[in-house]
Amino acid sequence: MRHIAHTLTLVLMLILGFMLGTRYQMVNDNVEGLQNLVAVQKSKIGELRFANSHLTTVVRLREVLEENRVRLPRASVEEMATRVDQVSRKYGVSSDMIFAVIQAESSFDPLAVSDRGAVGLMQLLPSTARGLAEELNIHWTDDSILWDPLTNIEMGTYYLRTLISRFNSVEVALAAYNHGPTRIAALQATSAALPLEYPGRVFASLQERN
Predict the structure, then answer these.
(1) Which of these is catalytic: 32, 63, 78, 105?
(2) CATH number for 185
(3) Residue 168 DSSP one-character state
(4) Which DSSP letter does residue 111 get?
C-alpha cells in the first residue's frame, strides 16, 4: 500500500508540475505576445508621427514659398521638406526656425549670393562651409556644392546648432550666424551691445507662423 501511495504521490506531483509548467509557458507566451504587440504599436505610432510631421513641413514650406513668390517643382518641394524634417530631428532645430532663417537669408532663392560671397539658401560662406563639410563628413569638391539646396540646408542647420550650443542662447546664436561668431564673442567679452536686428527679423517670421 505504501508503495502504491508513494507512486500515486509521484504521479500527482508530476501532473501538478506539468500543469504548472504549462501554465507558466502560457503566461510567458502571453507576456511575450503582449510585448511584441506593444512594440508593433509603438512603431506604428512613430510612423504616424513622422508622416504627420512631414505633412506639416510640406504645408508650411509651400506657404513660405508662396509668400516669397518662389515656384518649385512638386518633387523639389518634397525633397526640401524631407531634408528639413531630417535635419530638424538630427540637430534639434525646429523646422519653423530653419524656414525663418532661410527666409531671412535668401528668401528661398537657392542661387542667392551676398555681397560678402555667402551662397545659397542659408547663405554660407565657402570658407565656413568647408569646415562644416569636414565635420559632417561631406565630400567637398568645390564651392559649387553650396548651390545644392539639400546640402546647404544640412550645413546651415548644423552650423546654427553649433552656435546655439556655443553661446547657449538662440538669440545670440542668430546674431553670430549673421555677423560671425568671432565678432559676437568679442562684443560679449567687452559687454558691448549686440546687433540684434537679424534675430528680431527671424523671430518676427516665427511669430507670423504661430
Answers:
(1) 105
(2) 1.10.530.10
(3) S
(4) T
Decide which of 35 and 61 is more confident: 61
Distance of CA 197 to the CA centre of its chain: 27
Q: Where are the beta strands (DSSP E) in the chain?
A: none
* 197 flagged as catalytic: no
Total domains in the chain come to 1
Closest CA to 154 of 80, 52, 74: 80
Distance separating alpha carbons of residues 190 and 160, to the nearest angstrom? 23
Angle at CA of residue 63, ends 61 and 65, nearest 5°: 70
How far apart are alpha carbons 155 and 149 in whole angstroms?
10
pTM above 0.90, yes or no: no
Residue 10 is assigned to a structural domain of this protein: no
What pLDDT score does 60 carry?
81
**Structure confidence by residue, pLDDT tens digits, 127-140:** 999 999 999 999 99
Q: Does residue 12 lie in a domain region? A: no
- Sign of torsion, CA 137 141 146 150? negative
- Count CA within 13 A, CB hemisphere, residue 207: 6
